[in-house]
Structure formats: C-alpha cells, structure tokens
Amino acid sequence: MDADFIIVGAGSAGSVLAERLSADGRFRVLVIEAGGTDRRFYVQLPLGYGKLFYDPAVNWLYKTEPDPGLANQRDHWPRGKLLGGSSSINAMVYIRGHRDDYEDWKALGNTGWGWDDVLPAYKVIEDNEAGGNAWRGKGGPLFISANRKDLHPMVKDYVASCVAAGLPYNPDFNGAEQDGTGTYQLTVKGGRRNSAARAFLRPAMRRKNVEVMTNTMVTRVLIEDNRATGVEVIRVGKRQIIRARAEVILAGGAINSPQLLQLSGIGPGALLREHGIDVLRDNPNVGDHLNDHHGLNYTYKMKVPTLNDMLRPWWGKLKVGMEYVLLGRGPLSLSINHGGGFFRTRPGLQRPNMQLYFQAFSTLIPRDGERPILNPDPFSGMSIGLSNCRPTSRGTIRIASNDPLAHPVIRANAYSTNHDVEEMLEAVKFVRKIAAQDPIRSLIEEELRPGPACNTDEAMIADFRARSGTVYHPSCTCRMGPSEADTVVNPRLKVHGIESLRVCDASVFPTLIGGNTNAPSMMVGWKGAEIILADNR
C-alpha cells in the first residue's frame, strides 16, 4: 500500500496530479479521498448540481461563523467530497482569470508562475470545442464546451442589453481580452459533466501504478526530523499508517489543506498548543489570507417563459428529462449560467473587477436555519448575478479542536473593507443599468429582489449584506511565495521548513484569480506535477 507519492485529495488539482505523476510509469501513486465515487446520476447530469448543493453524501457542507459583513448570518459553503472534488459539484464555468492576475503572482516573487509561464500549461490541458489558437488549446485531456447549443432564447436579449449598457460583445473570456459580455465555456462533454475526475483521474486509474482509496480520511501527515514520511488515515473505522517513499502532496483545497497542516503540527503555534498539538513548525500563515468571491442575484419577474416554467412543473420536468435521456440535450445538459461577462465599475481600472452571471431561471437560496432545498420560483423568473473579482477582505481557517473529523472554524469576513463595499455598490447599480436596456427591459414585468423600493445607497448596501454569499471560490490559505514571513509554500510548492511535503491546490494561490477557480486549480495541478517530476528525476 505504500507509494512513492501520496496525494491527499482527488479534486481538481489532485486528479491532475495523479494523471501526470503516473504517466511515465516510474512512480507508484496513491490518491486518498475522504469521499466516495463520482458515479452518481446527479453528478454526471450537468444541471444536477442543484441536487448536490446540500447532499452530505458528496458535500462537506461547511458553514462559516456568523459574519458581520453578511448581516451576522452563517454562510453555506458547499465543497466536493467525492472523486473530482468540487469539480464534481460545481457550475462547470471554465474561466482562467485575467492575464495580469498571474503577473501579480510573479511580482510577489513566484518565479515560473507569470502569464507566459501558465498559458502553455492551460493550452496543453485543453481540448476546446471552439478550436485552438494563440489563446486556446486543442487536443488536450480536458474537453471544454463552447456552449453554443440549447441556450435559452433570452440569452441573446441579455447580451444585447449588456452591449446597450456599454459592454463589448466578447466571444471568448479566455481570449485576448476578458472584458465584455457573452456566453461561458463549460466543462461539459457529450451532455455529461466533465469533471477533473472524468478528464484526468479515471484515465490514470487504468494504470497499474495508480491506486485510489475512497472513503478514507487522512488525519495527519507524519513528519520525522522535519521530513514528511507518510500519513495516518482512518479507513473503515480503523487507523493505519501509509508511508511515502518520495513525497506527500496535499491537494485538499483551501479548507482541508490548511486544516490538515494544522492537525499535523504546522500552523499558528498558539492555536496548535491550545488544542494539544505539538508545534513542529510555527507558521501563522497556515489558514490565513483566506480570500473568496462574494456576490448576489437581482431577480426579475418576466413577461415571457423562462426555465422556471420548464423545471418546476412535473410535466416540464418530464419533457426536459426525456429530451436529455433520448438526445443528451436541453436544459439539463448545461449549467444554469448560460451567459455572463466581466466589467469595470469605474474608469481607470486596469482590468475588470466584477463578474456577471445570467440565468434564465430564479430561485431563493435558503439562509441558515431554512429548509435546505433549491426549487425554481413559481413564476417566470430571471436572474442577473454578479460577484467581485479581487476583494480585499480576508478571512481565516482554524481547527476547532484536535479532532480531524471536526469541521474547522471558517471566518470569511465578507465585505469587511470599505473598498469591497464601495465597489459592490457600484456593481449592483450597473446590474440595474443592464436591466433598464432594451431588449431585456421590455421583457421584465417587475424587479422582485431586492425590488424598486431599495433605491438608496444605504438600502442597497443593507440588501447585499443580507442576500450575498460565497460564489464558492475560497483560496489563498496556504499561499505561495519566497518568504515564510507571509506564505506557507515556496514557488516550488514545498512547505517552508519541511522536506518532502507540498501543497498543490487553490490554497496556494498567492492572490485570488479574477474569475472561477476550477480552471486555475487544474492548471496548478499540471504545473505542480511538472515541478515535482523535475525535482524527483
């Protein structure tokens, strides 16, 4: 059971790591996943992720501490607990981020992580349906849908209204420019979710030198003489030790990776001592610098049918179900986010600071204590959502005890800076500007959430504090950089001060990417594997 490389976590980065580290057959690779299989109907069904939002069988179901920035509410943080990780329960939008995001990484001392360094990795990963060019890859292991079929007719009206509001049409948010409006590329293939597990891990699992252990909880990393030698796990109720001949690689994501480091004695010294854990490396940055995108929807009652009219009644569900089963097409074969875009809330910004999501659909997200279920509203509804790209608010991940099965304490600190409040206020005003443009304006019967009575700056701020939540992109809690003074891993993803231990997932982002984080997480897995192989020749 021992292996050369032990990968903790089979999510977006871990799946890629497994495929690349095992490709030439030199190394035995063991992937350990706390969750189970991704071979579930609602995982494979693209629009099925609404059914996974509160499903403990595939979801860690984290909750934050009461957040003053969100009107003292506890926010629900779904994270994938299965093969593919959050790529198996997400909304499948494929966005790399702005080129300058990676130049920021480079400027912080992360040699090898600038835009010119990461673009080749993206291109070799991708098999873009739209074809290859200077920006996109073709022929790689990850098929990416161009998302041109079965779009709701209202998408073109939304795009036209965005153009009328001043945004350019953008056929490719991963192309030369990010600004503008259009449709999103999706990790969907043949009408099924194309998760990291499907694209990378399952092909790797056909190799003799790869083993995947599911339903196995890693409780701590074994560290002897400042070197990681293996992991302790709980499997079928029993504790056991598994040794790594070369390296242990944490790929559990922005919550689990810092939690596991802290449980293993690497983290804020006072916190570890408080919970009776021997301090092997006192690094207060472990679990610090938590950065996440927050946003909300503006919801409208429409004069024309929307997806609510098909997805709510039994006969509509039957119709779209038959269309999907017989043809592999229709609303169930897509994300709910058909369209979107990026914009700047004020002149003079060097890059977009807000992201848009268009949904020909509307629902109420349950708040803490309410029944955890997502249903379409009982009327023809449409939503225009948005989220901030580079918030300046920072949170923390801290273990609550030395029990590895206990959820950590998550303090998101949303909208805790004036900067974040002011730019969100500018952004929601722009959403209303879009809705006030024809052709979408003529299709709207009324604004329902927050409603026209919410018309002062104070009221709009109070509204987005009350209705905002995560858009599921936590990052930066084991951030990368050359100095242990403000980071956790170096640019080669090695944990400062510990040999043979790396972190390779969204937690190592030095700063949060302006866009969805699944694509950057897979890229980090790919580049991380290149680095690891180079160091283990």
Topology readout:
Elements: E1 3-8, H1 12-22, E2 29-32, H2 41-44, H3 49-52, E3 62-63, E4 76-77, H4 99-107, H5 115-125, E5 126-128, E6 142-144, H6 154-164, E7 180-183, E8 188-189, E9 192-193, H7 196-205, E10 210-213, E11 216-224, E12 227-235, E13 238-250, H8 253-263, E14 266-267, H9 269-274, E15 281-282, E16 294-302, H10 308-311, H11 314-327, E17 339-343, E18 354-359, E19 381-388, E20 396-398, E21 409-411, H12 418-435, H13 440-443, E22 444-449, H14 457-467, E23 469-470, E24 501-503, H15 518-535
Parallel strand pairs: 1-2, 1-13, 2-10, 5-6, 13-24, 14-15
Antiparallel strand pairs: 3-4, 7-17, 8-9, 11-12, 12-13, 16-19, 16-22, 16-23, 17-18, 18-19, 20-21
Detailed description of the structure:
The protein has two domains: about 1-60 and about 75-145 and about 190-290 and about 390-405 and about 475-535, FAD/NAD(P)-binding domain (3-Layer(bba) Sandwich), CATH 3.50.50.60; about 150-185 and about 295-390 and about 425-465, Cholesterol Oxidase, domain 2. It is about 25% helix and about 20% strand. The protein has helices spanning about 10-20, 40-45, 50, 100-105, 115-125, 155-165, 195-205, 255-265, 270-275, 310, 315-325, 420-435, 440-445, 455-465, 520-535, and strands spanning about 5-10, 30, 60-65, 75, 125-130, 140-145, 180-185, 190, 190-195, 210-215, 215-225, 225-235, 240-250, 265, 280, 295-300, 340-345, 355-360, 380-390, 395-400, 410, 445-450, 470, 500-505. Strands 1, 2, 10, 11, 12, 13 and 24 form a seven-stranded mixed sheet that branches. Strands 7, 16, 17, 18, 19, 22 and 23 form a seven-stranded antiparallel sheet that branches. A two-stranded antiparallel sheet has the order 3-4. The longest helix is centred in the last third of the chain and has 18 residues, at about 420-435. The protein is globular. The mean pLDDT is about 95.
